[in-house]
Amino acid sequence: MINMFKITILAIGSIKEKYLAEAIDGYLLRLAPYGKIKIEELKAEKFSEHSREQAKRLEAERIENYLAKRDSARVIVMDERGKTPDSLAFSKLINEESAELIMVIGGALGLADTIKQKYKEQMALSALTMTHEMARLILVEQIYRGVTIASGKTYHY
Question: Once rounded to an integer, what is the mean pLDDT over residues 58-87?
Fold first, then answer.
């Protein structure tokens, strides 16, 4: 049985590649009948070789400000060192959650340690490192996969 979910993907930066944006939009359209899903983009900091940590700190402040207003939500930080559920476990996670679920994706530099220390629930899409744009596409596809598993659709084999 599928639960009407409420999911926010909180992401640093925007999608620059048109083909990725189109693919993400396609999955968002497919997900619309099953619940509420939105992508909130926070400004990415420009950085140089010497300002990486400062950029991550400023992005972390933006994330903190956003999450501070949503303290009843369940927050999951996307990090390649997080837990790696299989698709069935991920389906169960999103379909049994009654609170708003906020999934945080860092920018080009990843997430500041302060975010990873504060929000202990961390999930990896893969042990491989990928661009934040690709991570967003894969996450949206996995949410769709999870919904189809719970609803008995023939998408997951």
Answer: 95
- Model confidence pTM above 0.90: yes
Domains in the chain, CATH or no CATH each: 5-46+59-150 (3.40.1280.10)
Distances 86 to 27, 46, 79 between C-alpha atoms, Å? 19, 35, 15
d(CA 82, CA 58): 23
Which amino acid, residue 156? H
* pLDDT of 3: 67
Strand-pair partners of 81: none
CB-based burial of residue 47 (10 Å sphere; 0-12 exposed, 13-18 middle, 19+ buried)? middle
Beta carbons within 8 Å of 118's beta carbon, 6+ residues apart: 64
